[in-house]
Design goal:
There is one protein chain. The chain is an alpha+beta fold. It has one domain. The protein is about 35% helix and about 15% strand. A 4-stranded mixed beta sheet has the order 6-9-8-7, with no helix packed on it. A 3-stranded antiparallel beta sheet has the order 1-2-3. Strands 4-5 form a two-stranded antiparallel ribbon. Helix 1 packs across helix 7 and helix 5 crosses helix 6. The chain is globular, with a radius of gyration of 17 Å. It comes from Amycolatopsis minnesotensis. InterPro entries: Endonuclease-I, His-Me_finger_sf.
Length: about 250
């Protein structure tokens, strides 16, 4: 069976209803054929090869990409900010205080790749967020704890880490782990179990990210987003959205 670049009926219905789907959403074909039966480092290598076959965007094209991937299901004129959960007009993208901009979930200074085509423009880790909240997250690693972020209830931060709201904890974890598999080379990105990683090509805490992925499995919004990136833009997938069980296979 070949994978259609069409949103499956079950997934579309779930996206509109806002329900959670169990198991892989749209990978019921041979996309992951070369990863079947593998685990650990062998699985990571196979997935790297599979998902590295992609179309790359420019940083300007990312604006249009995000407007499609993070569209508010209840209002097609808006996007939903990843941390605050706020629905904002697509047209309010920019650098002003009330605008939303492009949040690099894998902070671009961690590996010093900036906005280079590839890691700096990969939609699988670029999300919309209010300028002020994006600035508050900055380039901090991810961990539990801290004080609540102003304007973004449920998010917490301290001097060296950021904790997203519960509804997107798993999303954040799976974006970070996608980056570690996709860019397992140049730059050689990898999660570790510490914070304050600075400009090293690493983000932590891995143990917390794994817990977040288990705590917050992929929902219809995340699965729909994965499908839109595959269908309309990069033509590659985040394997941990389709197969969250692979997280602990690669990082036991």
């Amino acid at each position: 069976m070949r994978l259609s670049r069409q949103l499956p009926v079950a997934l579309l219905g779930a996206a509109l209803a806002g329900t959670v789907l169990a198991g892989p959403a749209a990978a019921a074909d041979d996309y992951y054929r070369d990863a079947e039966g593998k685990s650990g480092a062998e699985l990571k290598t196979a997935l790297h090869t599979i998902i590295s076959k992609m179309d790359k965007l420019s940083y300007d094209q990312v604006w249009d990409g995000i407007k499609a991937t993070d569209e508010d299901p209840a209002n097609s004129a808006n996007v939903i900010d990843v941390y605050s959960g706020k629905s904002q007009p697509k047209t309010s993208n920019g650098g002003g205080t009330g605008d939303w901009n492009r949040e690099h979930v894998w902070a671009k200074s961690h590996g010093d790749f900036g906005t280079a085509t590839g890691p700096g423009t990969d939609l699988h880790h670029l999300r919309p967020e209010q300028v002020t909240v994006n600035s508050e997250r900055g380039s901090k690693d991810f961990d539990n704890g801290g004080g609540e972020v102003g304007g973004a209830p449920g998010n917490r931060t301290d001097d060296d880490s950021f904790e997203p709201r519960d509804a997107v904890k798993g999303d954040v974890a799976r974006m970070i782990l996608y980056m570690a598999v996709r860019y397992d080379g140049a730059p050689d990105l990898e999660p570790n179990d510490k914070v304050d990683n600075g400009s090293a090509p690493a983000i932590g805490r891995l143990s917390v990210l794994k817990a977040w992925s288990a705590q917050d499995p992929p929902d219809s919004f995340e699965q729909h987003r994965n499908q839109v990136i595959y269908d309309q833009f990069q033509h590659n997938r985040n394997p941990f959205v389709d197969h969250p069980e692979w997280v602990t296979s690669i990082w036991p």
